[in-house]
Write a structure and sequence with these properties.
Distance between the termini of chain B: 61 Å
Low-confidence stretches of chain A: none
Low-confidence stretches of chain B: 1-21
Number of helices of chain A: 13
Largest interface: A-B, 67 and 65 residues
Oligomer: heterodimer
Largest sheet of chain B: 6 strands, parallel
Chain lengths: 251, 507
């Protein structure tokens, strides 16, 4: 099987280790990985902040970059939800505003081919035990767009629970937003910080060593708060935990 | 609390305290929220109250096996009604008139206030009792009546607390959610005597004692009042029936004892048939108070000799609703049945409190209703679409499936880059907000970078080279991040470069 990796702009520029982990993980599971270099940002930051016109070229670029790939895998529930839920809407609006049907077709074509990493592992590859080894106590924060936007359900937790040596502890108030929210984090810094502080306090209270999530954007906010406060908890993307094995532990 | 209209005074002296409709000069949401975020007592009060009710709601909803179908049915009925609103409103008018009531049409707040004021004046009375009306708060009726020398007494317990406290409501269902019981006891002691029967002495802060004090204070007013003003949860087009759901029974007192009843209701509250109530009488109580059925459901149809008010007036309020209806994405906000479930699950509301939203409609639904009913010209209204992380919890709990995050993004677009809208029935093109100029330039620049992978790669390399500089505090808008959070540690190499180094080429 072949799959194209949509690494996302945040992971490309700030969290390359997550992208590398996805490549290692998928290859270990027998999937050949393509990385179309024409990919860039999915356009979510622009779209969600109110700049739909500025997002359109990025929708077009993303759709073109992955044209012809039956499986597009991304380690971000948020970007997957953007493509699946909002690309068709953006395309439809462009079409109605008389800017051609081509964007709408491209958006509609890409949407069903995009899989968030845990969906791809559980639904397409049919695995929950990916042969990972990570001997640490971990608590999991289900980011909102994965949880409610994509309906990932217990897929991430099932994958984590199958990791050898891993002790998974419940995060109180797990389903509550961490307060990142893209530009919300800088447009409403006080509320954002209050939400994030409650989230990191809940995570620290579990006694876990690692706070794990499937979106590095949420983790950048939570990690920023944790490091500023000097808390001993570290943050990790789910892909990095799943990529770790006894032979090749986390670098 | 400065900058708000009509929030001071006692009856007959300097003004009617309480619930104001407009919030002129209100600061933008982030500034308004700052104070609440730092108020530990308020945050604790809100957290406790919202978490308790959200858990109870979840249990009440889980009891019904057909919740999803009820939700879909409620959405369908509301959408159908809104699509044929003109027809159903005329049918409602005919039915109310045939039953002995009088219907008045109010295009905006001023007209509605004028109509109600004249109706009260015509009775010769100088005071009215009020219950259950967000619509009258929306239009600032109490202030308008006060200007005409008429005193309005709020009779819903929470509204009474808000009124006695010269305060503003901060929640749709629990307007005094931001107050704890010792604050309420102090208010009762200090203020009740200025408005009527004083609080019993001594008065403790036991909820039962407080409720009894309110009961005695209010009973005096119910028995004296000749005119009542109410809102409504629903209006039935085929029968002309008006419906109020409540918990305390104070509403029923208002609706049955006075001689004249004036109901001020938004035009979106109409449903076609009596049977349609079957859906909402299940979904509204479970969503709002987590009850299977609310304790009091009062329905009245016109007037009946020897039973209830002998005069009934229905004031149908537009005040921006027809304009909202004209917007394809935004119109779904008019489905709202004011249950407040979205407030109780909203993590932003929980921290910011209701006052920060600058409207009688706070929380997620307020963030989409206010900028539509009032337009996006003021600072507060332009900031409301951004008062959300788009986490989607509000959409999940909404009993009529309003996609609040989708409307928020739609309204952000209106603020950031302008677009078509309808104001006062005229199709206009909203111009992009001026204060977004710098942001717009930044978004455009970032798009140029992101739309050229070569430029993006160069930018990433530049970033990697700058990693040793790693500032702890950023200037400008970045400060909002670095005031409380560390920046992500910059990697030595982007994923793109790693891929090329490891795998050579990409396809």
């Amino acid at each position: 099987m072949r799959a194209a990796l949509f690494v996302t702009c945040v992971n490309d520029a700030l969290y390359p280790r997550t992208g590398i982990a996805v490549v290692r993980l998928l290859e270990r599971l027998g999937v050949a990985v393509d990385f179309p270099a024409a990919q860039s940002c999915c356009g979510q930051p622009q779209y969600n902040t109110g700049y739909r016109y500025e997002a359109e070229p990025l929708v077009r670029r993303t759709a073109a970059a992955f044209a012809g790939h039956p499986y597009v895998v991304t380690p971000s529930g948020s970007c997957a939800a953007m493509i699946r839920a909002h690309y068709p809407r953006i395309g439809l609006k462009a079409e109605r505003e008389g800017r051609g049907a081509e964007l709408a077709d491209a958006a509609r074509s890409l949407a069903p081919r995009v899989y968030e990493l845990t969906e791809f592992l559980v639904d397409v590859l049919g695995v929950t035990d990916v042969g990972a080894y990570f001997p640490h106590t971990v608590t999991y924060h289900p980011s909102c767009h994965g949880l409610r936007g994509l309906g990932l359900g217990d897929r991430p937790r099932r994958l984590l629970a199958a990791v050898k040596g891993l002790d998974l502890v419940d995060l109180p108030g797990a389903q509550e937003c961490c307060g990142f929210g893209g530009t919300f984090a800088v447009k409403n810094p006080d509320v954002s910080t209050a939400m994030g502080t409650d989230k990191t306090a809940a995570a620290t209270g579990t006694g876990a060593e690692v706070l794990c999530a499937s979106d590095n954007s949420c983790l950048s906010h939570l990690d920023g708060l944790l490091r500023r406060s000097g808390a001993p908890l570290r943050t990790l993307h789910l892909a990095e935990i799943l990529a770790a094995t006894e032979e090749e532990p986390l670098p | 609390m400065t900058g708000f209209r009509g929030a001071t005074g006692a009856p007959g002296t300097t003004g009617t305290p309480g619930t104001t409709g407009t919030h002129l000069g209100m600061p933008a949401f982030p500034e308004a929220a700052r104070e609440a975020v730092r108020d530990g007592v308020l945050r604790a009060n809100l957290r406790h109250a919202t978490h308790t009710i959200r858990d109870k709601r979840a249990r009440a909803v889980a009891e019904l096996a057909d919740w999803d179908r009820l939700r879909a049915a409620g959405k369908a009925v509301k959408d159908h009604t809104l699509r044929h609103l003109d027809r159903y409103l005329l049918q409602l008018e005919a039915a109310v008139t045939a039953a002995g009531g009088t219907v008045h049409w109010a295009v905006d707040a001023d007209e509605a206030n004028r109509i109600v004021t004249e109706l009260v004046r015509a009775t010769g009375e100088r005071e009215v009792v009020k219950v259950k009306s967000m619509a009258t708060q929306e239009i600032g009726l109490n202030e308008a009546l006060e200007a005409a020398g008429i005193t309005a007494y709020e009779t819903d317990l929470a509204e009474l607390i808000v009124q006695l406290g010269h305060d503003r409501p901060s929640h749709i269902l629990v307007p005094a959610i931001h107050r704890n019981r010792s604050e309420i006891r102090d208010l009762f002691r200090a203020e009740m005597g200025r408005w009527g029967r004083p609080a019993p002495d001594p008065l403790g802060d036991d909820p039962r004692e407080l409720a009894e004090a309110a009961r005695l204070h209010l009973r005096e007013k119910f028995l004296r009042a000749k005119v009542a003003v109410s809102g409504a949860n629903f209006m039935v087009a085929e029968t002309g029936t008006i419906v109020v759901l409540e918990s305390e029974g104070n509403g029923r007192m208002c609706l049955t004892l006075p001689e004249t009843l004036i109901s001020v209701v938004g035009i979106e509250k109409v449903v076609p048939t009596f049977r349609d109530l079957e859906i909402f009488l299940q979904t509204l109580p479970r969503s709002s108070t987590a009850e299977r059925m609310n304790p009091y459901t009062t329905m009245w149809t016109g007037t009946t000799d020897g039973d209830g008010p002998s005069a009934f007036h229905l004031v149908l309020l537009d005040n921006g609703r027809t304009d909202t209806l004209a917007d394809e994405t935004g119109r779904q906000a008019l489905r709202c049945i004011r249950c407040s479930a979205c407030l109780n699950v909203c993590p932003v509301y929980e921290r910011a409190g209701g006052h920060a939203y600058g409207s009688v409609y706070p929380g997620p639904i307020g963030a989409v209703l206010s900028p539509q009913l009032r337009g996006t010209a003021s600072e507060i209204d332009a900031s409301l679409p951004y008062a959300s992380t788009l986490c989607g919890a509000c959409y999940d709990v909404c009993p009529v499936a309003i996609d609040i995050p989708d409307i928020l993004v739609h309204l952000r677009e209106r603020v950031a880059q302008g677009g078509p809208a309808t104001r006062d029935g005229i199709r206009v093109r909203i111009r992009p907000a001026r204060r977004h100029t710098a942001e717009r330039a930044a978004v455009r620049a970032s798009r140029l970078l992101l739309d050229r992978p070569g430029a993006l790669r160069a930018g990433e390399r530049l970033l990697a080279r700058a990693r040793r500089l790693a500032p702890r505090r950023l200037p400008g808008p970045g400060r909002a991040w670095t005031d409380t959070r560390e920046l992500p540690l910059l990697p030595a190499e982007s994923f793109r470069d790693w891929w090329t180094r490891e795998r050579g080429t990409s396809q």
